[in-house]
Amino acid sequence: MSQSPFFPTFDRLSPSIPIFPLAGVLLLPRGLLPLNIFEPRYIAMVDDALSSDRMIGMVQPTTPDSGAAAPEIYPLGCAGRITSFDETDDGRYLITLTGICRFHAGAELATTRGYRRVESDWSAFRDDMKGCDMEGGGCGLDRARLDAALGVYFRRHGISANWEAIKDTPDERLVTSLAMICPFDPPEKQALLEAPTPADRAELVVSLIEMAVLTPESGPEPGGESRH
What we know:
Largest sheet: 5 strands, mixed, barrel
Radius of gyration: 18 Å
Strand content: 15-25%
Number of strands: 6
Order of helices and strands: EEHEEEEHHHHH
Number of helices: 6
Shape: globular
Low-confidence stretches: 220-228
Structural class: alpha+beta
């Protein structure tokens, strides 16, 4: 994916960002994340983002079942820019975030519209805006290992696949798509986000799929299409 002229450059990333805590949902640089926004505080967040830099930080709560109004979050998230936006007749927003860059979440800042905002430190993630070094061998994805496990994994989880499209998809885009759409557990999603490099993430994706295939089935997985 080439860099859009509308995207911010690294030195123009904001020192703070609104956050959307959502367990089991992963955004990665250059990934596309559709979201169905209906809670009033997140409607307000989208309104404010659209009137500024269009940036929203996706993070995961560390204890999603705590019931807390403002649960603790993992300190690492990924910022996305609103690149698609639609309104529904029943008062929802349908948006798509395109992943831009990861960030370390710092101190929480006071807000007046219900949603949360944190200080954002981007300094460790400049390479997120570069992508894989294709001339240097891409992301190092072991396609043979992946292919050997992926069919079984998809069948087990009821995921349909266009195998020709998968075959033709560049390594980084395929790794990003698998990391985001596969029903990995929230800690596994966080580990994928925290992988230092695209090559590390590619190795982890393959390992997680292999481990899932070797684990005995324990019943059908819940659907994962709903987004808040």
